[in-house]
Amino acid sequence: MRKVLSLLVLFFLYSTLQAQAPTKLSASEIYHQIEKLNFLGSVLYVAAHPDDENTRLISYFSNEKNARTAYLSLTRGDGGQNLIGPQIREELGVIRTQELLAARRIDGGQQFFTRANDFGYSKTADETLEVWNRDEVLSDVVWIIRKFKPDVIINRFDHRTPGSTHGHHTSSAILSVEAFELANNKSAFPDQLEFTETHQPEKLFFNTSPWFYGSEEAFEEANKQNFLQFDTGVYFPLKGLSNPEIAALSRSQHRSQGFGSTGSRGTQEEYLELIKGTMSEGKEDIFEGINTSWSRIEGGAEIGKILSEVEENFDFTNPAASLPKLVAAYQLVKELDNEYWREIKSKEIKNIIAASAGLYLEAVAENATATPSEEVNVRFEAINRSDYAIDLRKVEISPNNSSIEPDVTLKNNTGWSEELILHIPKSSEVTSPYWLNEEGTTGMYKVGNRELIGLPETPAHTKAVFYLDFNGVEIPFQKEVVYKYNDNVFGETYRSFEIVPPVSVAFDENVMIFDSDQKRQISARITSGKDSVQGTLVLDSGENWKIKPESRNFSIPQKGGSVTLNFSITPPADQSETYIIPKAKVKNEVYSVKNVHIEYQHIPYQTLVLPSELKLAKLDINKKGQQIGYIEGAGDVVPESLEQIGYKVTRISPVDISEASLKRFDAVVIGIRAYNVVEELKYKQPILLNYVKNGGNLIVQYNTNRDLKSDNLAPYNLELSRDRVTDENAEVRFLAADHPLLNSPNKITKADFENWVQERGLYFPNKWAPEFTPVLSMNDKEELPRDGSLLVAKYGEGYYIYTGISFFRQFPAGVPGAYKLFANMISIGK
Ligand SMILES: [Zn+2]
Asked: Ligand 1 center to residue 48 CA distance, Å?
């Protein structure tokens, strides 16, 4: 029983964890929290990715219905593109996780995830469920239903229409429908029942809309027998905002996806189609037939009576007037037998008590970071801004539970402050997203600790508990130990207090490509997490690669300081790939990790501690031409990658595109989605095409067909489509085997298409003028051949090449064949 309790506490208390500026509730916000305190119903919204969720519905249930509302996103969105910075894959997943949490802070929802990894676009649910471990993802959905205990589940997607949308989408609905049945079945995932109980949700809906019917007309005609329809366009006078306005603010947190949205006012209909459970005539409320009042729990009626008085008599000019009743209700909540509601409601009521008293509690570490075994000063602040008699009995910090017992009365608006030393245990884990701590598979994250599954982020490691006495009633308040500082531009800035490794080792790049057997220098940067660190660095690699010297010593006097150590590396004569693993030895411990920091204004500062490695690839590659002009689009690492194989790359600002400026380049390469994001290209397109006509070589990488800034992408007719090949191992057939692109200066063979990552390519053209030569053909399973991945045409004296092949994904992964094919594209006509 003890174990169950601690897990429940962990699950619910830490659903938002990383340091944010503390929320300070106004009287109207306190009132809204009281309304929510008096509603005992829960909704779980289920979909596949960050951005799938309908924020209008989440806000509506949280703010209008006052329900506990959560979004379960099966994945963290690692497979998408990043519109605001260079992070992709796991790092992008961390950003999107935080964007969802930022969205929930606005719309009032909670956030959960499964261990499923967003491995990239998937066309069918069958494929998705093969790459994911179906059973594990299903078990996670069941686990979250058993823990969160929703009365109602709403799926974003339709479980009955595989193939009509992203395979992850349909899979999310299929698994949700299955989990609805399994959550209450004792023989399903019985190991979970050691930690939680079975649970049967009452109803399951599909959040349908005209989009799923293809048109407004088709939707009009749909049989709406099982539909529930309601207006989510409500206005909240307490917030001064309409529900769609809140939803837009929430959705606008998805900045890495460029989903800034503008809210609207007025009626906004939503439709839910009943999939499981029953619904009677009249049907307006998803909670119809479900007791959502305090009387749903044994011993709740009395609490409900007190709290409805608090709600009715709430004084917006003096919320502290509610304190005696709130404290009395808290005492009764603590006595509830129902463990689940006891934990949820005591947490909610404590927040309301603190806010009503104008109580401010904080625990701030003197440094942003510390290493295991270190000591750090923590400063506490406690202040009561009400006339209610509150005594501060004790403050305790964990993990080592040192404490002080001030035993003082917190008088109205008179602050108390004290310091205590926190000893970080030697065994402490470093602060990093928990799902990245172990190596997973393409489709799954590996999480060894069951308690963490489902949580959006790693629970804070260091906590302070303030034990306060409210007129004889002791109430403990738990706070994360944070770090804060004043930023000269942004003002008061909060961060999580982090446990970091004593040393970390980073390389400038993730991959180094050698186009000859000439030795090159590599730099390893060692950063220390504490004062006076001495040690030795060795770089381990594959046998044929020679690294000199064998080891280097380092000494870093100050915490946060770093040194750069240089090594020379000589590749073997033949084509070869290897990984360098750095081993920094300090005393008797060896460290092979790097710290990755992610800093954006809209999300809390993130530190990831990841395995440090550097991929080395020696290519047998030939090149013609030297000078490349690069016009950046939405952002990719293609320029750096081309530099790696010896090209001179000049980034050209779109405004500087002129006939004269392009002349000197052997090829001009256009970055991904440039024609979607660079307005200026509309005016520069004739110049680019003229460059080709006069003998230039223009290589255009993929764009989407929505929002194209120019309607003549190419010198001849070329129509973009949504054709993509998502299987990175799909067979590649040569349509023009004798074409220079496959022969000169590098002979391309099938082997060059081995070991690709994530996908072959996307948004291929599906119609083109006869002047174009399609070079390659490929397709996903059970689809027709797609021939538009690489198209080349002679125009005037030069060449125009359009390619949807995802070089931007292959280059950073060091895929040799991708480099060779690109070198041929640059070399054409030379
Ligand atoms: Zn999606």
From this structure: 6
Per-residue model confidence (pLDDT) at position 624: 94
Query: Tens of pLDDT along 799-825?
Result: 999 999 999 999 989 999 999 999 999
Q: Using the mean position of ligand 1's atoms as its centre, give its distance from the Cα of residue 275 in Å.
A: 21
Q: How far is the CA of 52 from the centre of ligand 1 (A)?
A: 5
The three-state secondary structure class of 682 is helix
pLDDT of 403 strictly over 60: yes
CB atoms < 10 A from the CB of 625, how many? 18
Selection from 773, 363, 430, 801 nearest residue 608 by Cα: 430
Q: Give the pLDDT confidence of 470-512 residue by residue, as tens digits.
A: 999 999 999 999 999 999 998 999 999 999 999 999 998 889 9
Helix axis angle, 300-312 to 323-334, nearest 10°: 160
Strand partners, 364: 379, 482
Asked if residues 464 and 573 have their Cβ atoms less than 8 Å apart, the reply is no
* Mean pLDDT in residue range 608-622: 94
Is the separation of the CB atoms in 686 and 723 below 8 Å?
no
Average pLDDT over residues 553-566: 96
Burial class (CB in 10 A: 0-12, 13-18, 19+), 316: exposed
CA 257 – ligand 1 centroid, Å: 11
- In this prediction, residue 5 carries a pLDDT of 38
Residues whose CB is less than 8 angstroms from the CB of residue 437 and which lie 6 or more positions away in sequence, other chains included: 429, 447, 448
Give me the pLDDT at residue 4, please: 39
Q: Are 479 and 463 spatial neighbours (Cβ–Cβ below 8 Å)?
A: yes
Q: Which amino acid is at 638?
A: V
Q: What is the pLDDT of residues 217-241, one digit of tens each?
A: 999 999 998 999 999 999 999 999 9
Q: What is the mean pLDDT of the chain?
A: 94
CA 438 / ligand 1 centre spacing (Å): 26
Nearest CA to 534 among 589, 582, 610?
589
In this prediction, residue 83 has a pLDDT band, given cuts at 50, 70 and 90, of confident
Entry pTM:
0.90
Q: What is the 82 CA–ligand 1 centroid distance (Å)? A: 15
Alpha-carbon distance of 59 to 251, in angstroms, equals 11
Specify the long-range contacts of residues 775-778, CB closer than 8 Å, at least 24 apart.
Answer: 775/734, 775/735, 775/736, 775/739, 775/741, 775/742, 776/732, 776/733, 776/734, 776/735, 776/805, 777/732, 777/733, 777/734, 777/735, 778/725, 778/730, 778/731, 778/732, 778/733
Exposed, middle or buried, 526 (CB in 10 Å: 0-12/13-18/19+)? Answer: buried
Q: What spacing in Å lies between the alpha carbon of 600 and ligand 1's midpoint?
A: 23
The DSSP output letter for 60 is: I
Cα of 55 to ligand 1 centre, how many Å?
14
Residue 21: DSSP 8-state: P
| Ligand 1 mean position, distance from CA 51 (Å) | 6
Residue 433 has pLDDT above 60, yes or no: yes
Burial of residue 89 (number of CB atoms within 10 Å: 0-12, 13-18, 19+): buried
Can you say whether the dihedral through the CA atoms of 696, 701, 706, 707 is positive or negative? negative
CA of 341 to the centre of ligand 1 (A): 33
**Per-residue model confidence as pLDDT tens digits over 761-788:** 999 999 999 999 999 999 998 899 999 9
Distance 587 CA to ligand 1 centre (A): 48
Q: How far is the CA of 87 from the centre of ligand 1 (A)?
A: 19
Q: Is the pLDDT of residue 8 over 60?
A: no
Does residue 2 carry a pLDDT above 60?
A: no
Residue 716 burial by Cβ neighbours in a 10 Å radius (0-12, 13-18, 19+): middle
Q: Single out the residue of 720, 725, 709, 717 nearest to residue 633, CA to CA.
A: 709
Helix (H) or strand (E) holding 809, with range, is helix 807-810
168 C-alpha to ligand 1 centroid (Å): 7
The answer to whether 395 and 380 have CB atoms below 8 angstroms apart is: yes
Task: Write out the E strands in 399-457.
Answer: 402-404, 408-410, 416-423
